[in-house]
Design goal:
By secondary structure, the protein is an alpha/beta fold. The chain contains 8 helices and 8 strands, in the order ββααβαβαβαβββααα. The chain folds into 2 domains: 166 residues, Aconitase, domain 4, CATH 3.20.19; 31 residues, no CATH class. The strands form 2 sheets. It has a 4-stranded antiparallel sheet, with no helix packed on it. A 4-stranded parallel sheet has the order 2-3-4-5. Strand 4, helix 4 and strand 5 form a beta-alpha-beta unit. The longest helix has 14 residues. About 4% of the residues have low confidence.
Length: 203
């Protein structure tokens, strides 16, 4: 998993509440277990019309927001079904951080498990960030170590994060990577078990 330390990027304002995981990545794109390629389906109904043409009024289709890595969204982002493909699609598109007043619990957990940073800030602060994001020509800074979001104006907002989750993001550790940190202890345990309980080794 790619480590998350500091992110300097433009931010795209998506001022809409209750964006669910089917809107983030529609069910018809869930036929794969691969993480790559899902970005093309991200916000598909928002990004494309019925003929498959890009909607020029959708924020992520506008040229000033191309390549953005930060999304500032409305309340209850990621509600709906518990599909892990939602953070996969966001990350494949290039989004590494979503800032919102609240997130659905399962989506929030899936983000941390996949290296995407969800930041919860009060509504007034999210609205202020959205206002500063308009135009797309300014740089925002998300610093995980200091737990701050700094707007183009220089105003900084602090956010809370579980210390354990923060450490894993900083080190780029997913569940497998975290387990492998204890590989030596696991090898010792398996060796002792093979000696003391050899029948368990028989397949």
């Amino acid at each position: 998993m790619q480590a998350f330390t500091r992110l300097d990027s433009r931010a795209a304002p998506l001022n809409q509440t209750n964006i669910d995981t089917d809107q983030i990545i529609p069910a018809r794109f869930l036929k794969t277990v691969e993480r790559e390629g899902l970005g093309k389906g991200l916000f598909h109904a928002f990004r494309y019309d019925e003929n498959g043409a890009e909607r020029t009024d959708f924020v992520l289709n506008r040229p000033e927001y191309k390549g953005t890595s930060i999304l500032v969204a409305g309340d209850n982002f990621g509600c709906g079904s518990s599909r892990e493909h939602a953070p996969w699609a966001l990350m494949d598109f290039g989004i590494r951080c979503v800032i919102a007043p609240s997130f659905a619990d399962i989506f929030n957990n899936n983000c941390f498990n996949n290296g995407l940073l969800p930041i919860v800030l009060p509504v007034d602060q999210v609205n202020a960030l959205m206002d500063e994001a308009k135009g797309g020509n300014h740089v925002f800074t998300v610093d995980l170590e200091s737990q701050t979001v700094t707007a183009p104006s220089g105003k900084s907002y602090g956010f809370d994060i579980d210390p354990g989750r923060k450490e894993k993001l900083l080190k780029g550790l997913d569940a497998i990577g975290e387990t492998l940190q204890h590989a030596g202890d696991i090898d010792v345990f398996e060796s002792k078990r093979a000696i003391g309980q050899p029948w368990l080794e028989q397949a």
